[in-house]
Amino acid sequence: MDKTIFPKDFLWGAASSAAQIEGAWNEDGRSPSIWDIAPKKKIRNGEDCHIASDHYHHFREDVKMMKELGLKSYRFSISWSRVMPEEGKVNEKGISFYSDLVDELIKADIEPLVTIYHWDMPLWVYEKGGWMSEKIIPLFKEYTKIVVDRLSDRVSWWMTINEPACFIMNGYMQGEHAPFKRNYLALSKLTRNCMLAHGEALKAIRKYAKKTPKVGIAFSSGAFIPKTEDPDEIEKARRMSVESDNGLMSNRWWMDPIILGKPVKAYGIYASHEKDMIEICQPLDFMGLNIYTSFNYSSWGKGSQVPSPGIAKNSLGWVIDERVMYWNLRFIYERYGLPIMITENGVSLNDSVSLDDKVHDPQRTDFIYRYLGQLKKAMNEGIPVIGYQHWSIMDNFEWAEGYDPRFGLVYVDFDSGRRIIKDSAWEYKKIIETNGAGL
Ligand code: BGC
User: Fold this and answer.
1) Pocket of ligand 1 contains residue 120 by CB under 6 Å
2) Does residue 160 line the site of ligand 1, with CB under 6 A?
3) Residue 49 Cα, ligand 1 centroid: separation in angstroms?
4) Hey, which residues are catalytic here?
5) Burial code of 217-233, b = ≥16 C-beta within 10 A, e = fewer?
6) Burial (0-12, 13-18, 19+ Cβ within 10 Å), 278
7) Where residue 41 sits, what CATH number does that domain have?
């Protein structure tokens, strides 16, 4: 008998973020974000996110597709500059867009999962110092309160921030993402401001929410794969994954302070100090993990992966190794003990429309079965996974990589805005319909 224990209310879904799909960058009172003003030379092919997948104008049709695919949940983020185009000003049309989206989702029986911040900082906040300044903490709290005031009568699931490690590494250390800075010396300050803003936002959600909220944060996460199933190898991989390394991109740098209230030190500096722990370490209902690829023993410490020749990779060159799903869940749950939602997992491919006017993407279908198989293995061992959000619901603006990497379950023709449901999405629908029985 199939022992799969996907609970009846398992949150099968898909994810997106505002800057990557919405477009309508200067409509209905929205002000620019740091991504809208990215210099052309910083984005592949000189592209921008001004129109993106044009979801702002297609959202009803998009929700209809989600319904057709049988999604139970949909994770999306709010554009801060759409809701607050300037300090102290609420943009009624902006917040109404999200309110209408939530209504549409609820009508379709799809649970809305809201991320407050997914990298698209308003220019006006950046000009006040952005993540470099403590001023962001009360500003972020005020913005969170506005969103919660307007949506929490219908929204229960909240994530404060998406992948702080990534936007700090890419945006402030390596200069590859907006705001394109290289400022290694600011690491401690950036981390601290981010963690404190998370803590304040979380408290605001609990205080102002009308429906009892379930609050989390979405971490980028990875793990080392044990070389064999020998207990010593497993222990080595576990230590490397969640204990030994403390750097910015490690699991610990963020999770220890936020979940355990433990300060972490690396490169001779603290991610956060003991005195801040009370504010930072707020009780979470779940932790979100964005899982894509494994860490690699030989390259750890050198900053990048060195995959073996010919190994399976996505179109961005990231190694496809589904074992990371199982080991990541196992190591993280052993250390942090919280229910886990997979808030992102997916694959970029060079999808195209075939002569039959369909999008055939067998590699994505295979990817989904591989990763979900490992997720099921973890759940069968008792790890409480409460949902899986495939990245992404539709092809979108992949930040500095522009539009070439297609991560969507739904294909988007970026010229016409036309959508085509890919083959893999129909397969995903079957998995949802059978509640993972065939995995
Ligand atoms: C981010 C997404 C991004 C995806 C694929 C995650 O790190 O949260 O915004 O599109 O990875 O790169």
Assistant:
1) no
2) no
3) 15
4) 163, 344
5) bbbbbbbbbbeeeeeee
6) exposed
7) 3.20.20.80
Q: Is the CB of 16 under 6 A from ligand 1?
A: no
- The amino acid that residue 232 corresponds to is D
Q: 176 lies in which domain range? A: 11-433
Is 328 within a domain? yes
Q: pLDDT, tens digit, for every residue of 319-370?
A: 999 999 999 999 999 999 999 999 999 999 999 999 999 999 999 999 999 9
Q: What is the mean pLDDT of the chain?
A: 95
Let me know if residue 380 belongs to a domain.
Answer: yes
pLDDT of residue 298: 56
- The partner residues of 306 in beta bridges, in order of sequence, read none
Beta strands in 4-62 (DSSP E): 11-15
Structural domain includes residue 196? yes
pTM of the model: 0.97
Query: Considering only CA atoms, which residue is closest to atom 12 of ligand 1?
Result: 398
Encode burial over 383-410: b for 16+ CB neighbours within 10 A, e otherwise: bbbbbbbbbbbbbbbbbbbbbebbbbbb
Mutual orientation of helices 136-151 and 92-107 as an angle, nearest 10°?
A: 50
- Looking from the CA of residue 399, the nearest atom of ligand 1 is 10
Measured from the Cα of 346, ligand 1's closest atom is 5
Beta strand 287-291 with 340-344 is parallel
pLDDT per position as a tens digit, 363-414: 999 999 999 999 999 999 999 999 999 999 999 999 999 999 999 999 999 9
Ligand 1 neighbourhood includes 344 CB (under 6 angstroms): yes
pLDDT means per 10 residues, the chain with 439 residues, are 78 99 98 98 98 98 98 99 98 98 98 99 98 98 98 99 98 98 94 97 98 98 92 94 88 96 85 88 98 74 61 92 97 98 98 98 98 97 98 98 98 98 98 95
Is 17 a pocket residue for ligand 1 (Cβ < 6 Å)? yes
> Domains in the chain: how many in total?
1
Cα of 289 to ligand 1 centre, how many Å? 12
Examine residue 3 and state whether it is found in any structural domain, yes or no.
Answer: no
